[in-house]
Amino acid sequence: MVKKLVLAVVAALALPFLVTGVAWGHGYTTTPPSRAYKCKTGAVTNCGAIQYEPQSTEGPKNFPGGGPADGKLCSAGVARFAELDDQRGGTWPTTKLTSGATYTFNWTLTAAHATTSFRYFVTKNGWNPSAPLSRAQLDTTPFLTVPFNGQRPGTTVSHSGKLPSGKSGRHMILAVWDIADTANAFYQCSDVTF
Known about the structure:
Blueprint: H1 2-20, E1 26-31, H2 35-41, E2 58-60, E3 95-96, E4 102-111, E5 115-123, E6 138-147, E7 156-162, E8 170-179, E9 184-193
Parallel strand pairs: 3-9
Antiparallel strand pairs: 1-4, 2-9, 4-7, 5-6, 5-8, 8-9
């Protein structure tokens, strides 16, 4: 009887870690609005579970050498957020940006985490907005990197930087929040028009 009680207590204490994982940092981009954020606000419908937890697109770090598999970058490889990887025939609403201009990126963090950096990637000219996002479609050198050197950001984070030059038409920006003290990063995809 005592053994069963001990097992029950251990299981009850372990359950939150099994369900939610051990990473406490979560966040999403609001400017430009990411797909996850658009689902949260209802600007886009038929999004599945991501509308309730836009901050949870967490996957392996070390992008582009590591990280989520091609075709699963927007969901961070999390199956329950697969709607984010669906290009919907190129119909996700876009945010208008000016190529080469200075722009301020904003994140909302529901829980801060020791951070290596925030990095921003953009699709190549001529990419296929109807095909699942892959490394081959991205410029794999970030156009903006904001180092954090292991510091914890606040609940809102803003950084300004120059948007890539020579871009026109529909593109996607992949924002990556690299966590310093776990093996994970957070991935956010924003549909934009230059």
